[in-house]
Design a protein that fits this description.
By secondary structure, the chain is an alpha/beta fold. Helices cover about 35% and strands about 15% of the residues. It folds into two domains: about 130 residues, Rossmann fold (3-Layer(aba) Sandwich), CATH 3.40.50.720; about 180 residues, NAD(P)-binding Rossmann-like Domain (Rossmann fold). The protein is globular, with a radius of gyration of 22 Å. The relative contact order is 0.15. Bound molecules: (2R)-2,3-dihydroxypropanoic acid. (2R)-2,3-dihydroxypropanoic acid binds next to loops.
């Protein structure tokens, strides 16, 4: 029977659908496979269901001569060697849309957690320090009526912007190009990068990692931001230079930071860990039960289509179709 390797366990029943027709191997541990485990288990597969943490490079692809699809469960796919997969006629798919709203929710959770010092306040209560109410206790920053700056106005950026309406916020954004649909829907204004830095009370990064976005936020940028401002990153870690962020937070160039993604995941910069004005999460942007079920269902559907000879809907390398049609 033809083998499909799934690198992680998922909630829901979707993966079981594949077992009716194929030999499905789901990596049994609760951790992701190590490099050796990935190579060992992927060998000979006709389909791989992977996450952004599984490096699917030439070596992995070459171990699977009959590989038809790498179905990446996640919107990002920088873990897959797309040019090589395309050259080999292998479909690469992702799972956009289904995680947009969940990730936008988390961006807001980070904004509030940092602005209203939620983690510090929770610890204060748990540590038995709440002995009386005091007017200067744990003062934070308002969110409502402020200016929200979005760096990367794609689907997730637009979903973050939509939520701002309810808080009476002005929304400005910076993106590779204007997103007219998002502007019409959310009232967001396109501004240049300098304006985004100078006028935002909150900057939320939802951009993907590209040559242009890598290292885009460092000391120089933090200096230009308001000293009362908060930066949130639910995009990709390397967009922020973490040691420069830590230094800027220490010297008060900005007020706080909420990060769901890191420069060298899963390592987290020690200086950021020691700071009180940071909230640090283990890349859980899309981690709701409902969304995980939708993501794996979509990833499974892509595999079903690819293995039955059809083109999957969410192809990230559509050029592969040209080579198949020629
Ligand atoms: C994504 O979907 O890209 C998330 O960051 C999880 O991988």
């Amino acid at each position: 029977m033809k083998k499909i390797f799934v690198t992680s366990q998922y909630p829901g029943e979707s993966v079981k659908r594949l077992s009716e027709k194929y030999d499905v191997e789901v990596f049994p541990k609760t951790t992701l496979p190590t490099r050796e485990e990935l190579l060992e288990n992927a060998r000979g597969s006709i389909a791989l269901i992977t996450t952004v943490s599984d490096l699917v490079d030439k070596e992995v692809i070459d171990l699977c001569p009959d590989l038809k699809i790498v179905s990446n469960s996640g919107v990002g796919y920088e873990n897959v060697d797309i040019p090589y997969a395309t050259k080999k006629g292998i479909f690469v798919t992702n799972t956009p849309n289904v995680l947009t709203e969940t990730t936008a929710d988390l961006a807001w959770a980070l904004m509030f957690s940092v602005a209203r010092r939620i983690l510090e306040a929770d610890a204060y209560v748990r540590e038995g320090k709440f002995t009386c109410w005091h007017p200067s206790l744990l003062l934070g920053m308002d969110v409502h009526q402020k200016t929200l700056g979005i760096y990367g106005m794609g689907r997730i950026g637009a979903a973050v912007a939509r939520r701002a309406k309810g808080f009476g916020m002005r929304v400005i954004y910076q993106n590779r190009g204007r997103n007219q649909i998002a502007e019409n829907e959310t009232g967001a204004e396109f501004v240049d990068f300098e304006t985004l830095l100078e006028e935002s009370d909150f900057i939320v990064i939802t951009a993907p990692l590209t040559q242009e976005t890598r290292g885009r936020f460092g000391s120089g940028e933090f200096q230009k931001m308001k000293s009362t401002s908060i930066i949130v990153n639910v995009g990709r870690g390397p967009i922020i230079k973490e040691s420069e962020l830590a230094a800027s937070l220490k010297e008060g160039a900005i007020w706080g930071a909420g990060l769901d993604v890191f420069e060298n995941e899963p390592q987290v910069n020690e200086e950021l860990v020691e700071l009180k004005n940071t909230v640090l999460l283990p890349h859980i942007g899309s981690a709701s039960i409902e969304t995980r079920e939708r993501m794996i269902d979509m990833a499974v559907q892509s595999v079903e289509l690819a293995l039955s000879g059809d083109a999957p809907e969410y192809l990230v390398n559509p050029e592969v179709l040209d080579s198949k049609n020629n």
